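Troubleshooting: if your tokenizer reports a length mismatch, compare your output against this known-good record of 409 residues.
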Amino acid sequence: MSKGKDAKPHIGIFGRRNNGKSSLINALAGQEIAIVSDFAGTTTDPVKKSMEITGLGPVILIDTAGIDDIGELGEKRIAKTKETLKTVDLAILVITDNTFSDEEIKLVASFSDLAVPYFVIHNKSDISILNTDLRERIEHEFKSIVIDFSVLNPQNKEQIIQTILKIMPESAYRSQSLIGDLIGYGDTVLLITPIDIEAPEGRLILPQVQVIRDILDNDGIAVVCKEKEVDTYIRRMEPKPKLVITDSQVFLKADASVPKDIPLTSFSIILARQKGDFENYIKGTPHLSKLKDGDRVLILESCTHHVSCDDIGRVKIPRWLTNFIGKNIEYEVVTGLSKLPRDIHEYAMVIQCGGCVLTRKQVINRLKPAVDAGIPVTNYGMAISFVHGIYDRAIAPFLNKEQTATDYL
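Known-good structure output:
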């Protein structure tokens, strides 16, 4: 399954083998998109399908392997199903034949641990109707909605859709404005966007496009220039820009060019506030100066891209950080939402990219093992500003007037 490439709300379908998870997806989507078989264990890797839900918009349905799979291959399938849990905004637990025991209880505990809202569908009601005692147990003990359903006679499919609409977190489909609380009608925002070897041919990168759209949505004026033109343009701008946003790679140049009375931050830090664990980023970033010889730093990229000789995550950040602390640090890069190559406790620090292609839930759950383990986390832009000595200025636009970065330590 290609993970972490779509910021639409993700709905995971979980349950035992042969409970009709694939058939349920086909019934909801109105088309055959998942392999359906009478044999248990048909679904191997999680399968994704996009569909439209009125009132919610496009969503991603994820069909997963059975949680009761067996054998060596079955264990691998279950592991992938558990990894999928970290990517979903809402879960549907499919049961049949009035069976709700240890496997289901473990899944519900995982939903709770990852703060994933869920509901239960008792499938194949044409064979076995949902028992009243089981319904009451699930509703009262596990605080979940339970729907009796049959994919062969899906008369109450609308009840499932309405339940999805009811419990889907609003944050999964209605993102908060990136900078709407920082600008007003007619305010000008200057965007510094280098066009270098990493810039895509003929277009801007996604975070830059997202910020431009957000400025327009908030009735602001977006002015875009390269770092070489900043000095000339800043002198001529009247009135002064309300905010300047720079690519993190040219933070030092931007800091020198933009007068101190004009707020300055980066695209990555803006995304960190919208999608990341911003408070833990602020707490974690200063720990960069505490790294020691032999420490291992985990760098999390969200997307797969061509790696250039001056790649921001694989080359520049390690170089800047090593120069800043003067220590022998080991760096490991993990792309997308892939499994980590080692236990999280073996890392001294985690640096997450902006996450422009991920949902907030995916970023938060990606960082959760580190946060739970007390391992400091930070973000590309915040790390870069810190090692360049402009961290306080870079996060100042997002703090209350009375706050400073040290308030979070």
